[in-house]
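Fig. S4 source data, part A: sequence.
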Amino acid sequence: MYSSAKRNFKSYFLSLGTGARLELMKSPGEDSRPAHLAISVGSRAAVDRLIQEMEAAGVRIVSAPRITGDGYYEAVIADSEGNLLEITS
């Protein structure tokens, strides 16, 4: 379990074999949303490059690349329906 020291947020990561992982999150006070996806693009440079290309193409960037409280390097975008997608290194 990961618990944020800055806000009321907890998450659990479930590993699925040697590849995919599922994160279950709980954050009281935030609007509920059905789900979001995260995809790893391999490196911080790849995250930065992809986000720059997406921003230039008009994709809504919700959160610029940053290191999260649990140590991931990620940016968050919204798709055309408002679903969130994390782009991670």
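Fig. S4 source data, part B ends here. The mean pLDDT is 87.
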